[in-house]
Design a protein that fits this description.
The protein is mainly beta. Helix content is 5%, strand content 48%.
């Protein structure tokens, strides 16, 4: 999975929040005497960085100001990149004096545990378009991290980029016994069908987010040979600069999560 970070990085370079975002918090008549304790939200867009476990981090603050972070481990001595998991805040991230504490879920797929989801607390300090803080998951010790906002202009995600295309890659699902190979076949207007190597059928739909940074993605699993049998998950998907590689993260309120990367 050496290319995971490469296409996620390519996606963040192209998809970083540009100056023409229609959902920016800017105003033409700012308050000349702002309240220093006023609660605001994280800047929507893409972030990248590392943690003190030497993992690569790729973050998205979506249009609802929820924070998604994918973490990737570097295998030694090969240097190959391996998806370790992702995490997502339960609610919009609110800042108070540039700081936040948010509850979320961690979806780990590194093979060292039962591939279950767990509660996690994410703290952060937002300064100069960068976030530093900790991930805390009991009973583990806190993990420190640093993320920097990508200021590059982004390309819009549209139906044209995915319609009538096929994406194949590894699929990880919470509570599954391991990674499977999956294929997603798109038809029109973001609708897709697919299956994995265990015979699990998958259907769903992608819709461009209002900002255009990513797709809002719905995934429905079939009833047979599926770790998430009969369940519906929703999340976010991004394309790389060539539109050839797709990264999809999705969750539901039962604690189930999935990650697909072509």
């Amino acid at each position: 999975m050496k290319k995971i970070a490469l296409y996620l990085l390519a996606g963040t370079v192209l998809l970083g929040c540009g100056g023409d975002d229609s959902d920016s918090n800017s105003t033409t008549n700012p308050n000349p005497n702002p309240d220093p304790t006023q609660t605001v939200t994280l800047m929507p867009g893409f972030y990248e960085g590392t943690d003190d476990e030497d993992e690569l981090l790729y973050g998205l603050v979506d249009d609802d100001r929820k924070l998604w972070i994918t973490y990737i481990e570097i295998l030694q001595p090969s240097g190959d990149e391996n998806l370790a998991g992702f995490m997502k805040t339960n609610e919009s991230v609110l800042l108070n004096n540039d700081k936040f504490t948010a509850l979320g879920k961690n979806y780990s797929y590194d093979g060292s545990n039962s591939r279950s989801s767990s509660d996690i607390t994410i703290t952060g300090n937002y300064k100069a378009s960068a976030i530093s803080g900790t991930f805390f998951e009991q009973p583990s010790n806190p993990i420190s991290y640093n993320l920097k906002f990508d200021t590059s202009a982004f390309k819009k995600h549209t139906f044209t980029q995915i319609d009538n295309k096929t994406f194949t890659g590894p699929l990880n699902v919470t509570s599954s016994t391991g990674t499977t190979a999956a294929t997603l076949i798109f038809t029109n207007n973001g609708s897709f069908t697919g299956s994995d190597s265990q015979g699990c059928t998958i259907t769903g739909k992608f819709t461009p987010a209002a900002s255009g940074r990513y797709y809002i993605s719905t995934v429905v699993f079939g009833q047979i040979n599926c770790a998430a049998a009969g369940e519906t998950l929703t999340g976010v998907s991004i394309l790389d600069d060539s539109d050839d590689n797709l990264a999809l993260s999705a969750t539901n309120n039962t604690g189930r999560g999935m990650f697909f990367g072509s």
